[in-house]
Design brief:
282 residues; mainly alpha; single chain; 0% strand; 18 helices
């Protein structure tokens, strides 16, 4: 476990991309059961595997990074879903590649606070993914799956920090609690020598995550700021709402400006947008 901050963005990316990514215990258990079914009956398909993995951003990262690292020379398009990655690998090779799996709860057995914080961050990601999926469906958006994955993977730098540098993650959490109104990036820079948002973008680049996922979240991608402007706004609004719910609890509500922007994007009234959000999170 890393106990001292690394000097810069390059060092952090090299360190985190070189470390194994543990997965949730529920994911490891479900995949183990599916592997037994496949060995006995040969009836497992890519969709069943996707269902077992779908809510685990850590296992999603493992699959997508493996797919990009082992893509064939003739493959010209990104593998941007777990289902597509499994189809390309084949069912048998998938289970051989991802067995055994390092389990988060075992990996952080000595750091129960880290386990709790990672589960909290993943719940926040689930919330954002549900919201942006509903927004995208109403927007009739062809990028719905990419938006869902982008929301699910949002915050993976902080999750990996808890996985591999839990004492530093704990120090950052304490600084946030001590100075709740201070700029988040400045606090991160003080504790880690790097802010988490640029680290997350760098990890996505170094892992060669699907280009659409990167373009949806990269603040420096000027082309996507134009071509994907509505999608980026839907994602940002979903993430903002999820983070506010995480911070303030069930009483958190969208601001009037957020409701009006969503209403414009989705061609709904503001009361209809509020009902959509309430029903999605119920």
């Amino acid at each position: 476990m890393l106990a001292q901050p690394l000097p810069d963005l390059d060092a952090w990316s090299r360190y985190l991309t070189s470390r194994p990514i543990p997965v949730l215990s529920d994911t490891a258990e479900e995949l183990g059961l599916l592997a037994e079914v496949e060995a006995r009956h040969g009836t497992v398909d890519a969709h069943l595997i996707n269902e077992a993995i779908g809510n685990d951003p850590l296992m999603t990262l493992r699959v997508l990074t493996h797919a990009t690292r082992h893509r064939a020379d003739r493959q010209v398009t990104d593998v941007d879903t777990v289902t597509a990655a499994v189809v390309l690998m084949g069912i048998g090779p998938f289970f051989r590649t991802f067995s055994p799996l390092p389990v988060l709860e075992d990996h952080l057995q000595a750091y129960p606070q880290g386990i709790a914080e990672i589960h909290r961050l993943i719940r926040r990601s689930w919330c954002a993914a549900r919201l942006v999926t509903e927004f995208a469906l109403l927007h009739a958006d062809s990028h719905a799956i990419a938006l869902q994955k982008a929301a699910l993977l949002h915050g993976h730098a902080e999750i990996l920090l808890w996985c591999h540098a839990p004492t530093l993650a704990q120090a950052l959490l304490e600084r946030r609690e001590q100075a709740p109104h201070r700029d988040a990036a400045a606090l991160e820079q003080d504790v880690l020598n790097v802010a988490l948002a640029p680290l997350e973008h760098r990890l996505a680049q170094d892992w060669s995550l699907p280009s659409t996922l990167r373009r949806l979240t990269d603040p420096d991608d000027q082309r996507s700021l134009v071509l994907l402007q509505p999608q980026r706004r839907l994602l940002t609004l979903a993430l903002t709402l999820a983070e506010r719910l995480d911070r303030e609890g069930a009483q958190a509500t969208p601001t009037l400006d957020e409701l009006e922007e969503l209403a414009s994007l989705l061609t709904l009234s503001t009361p209809a947008v509020q009902r959509l959000i309430d029903n999605t999170l119920a």
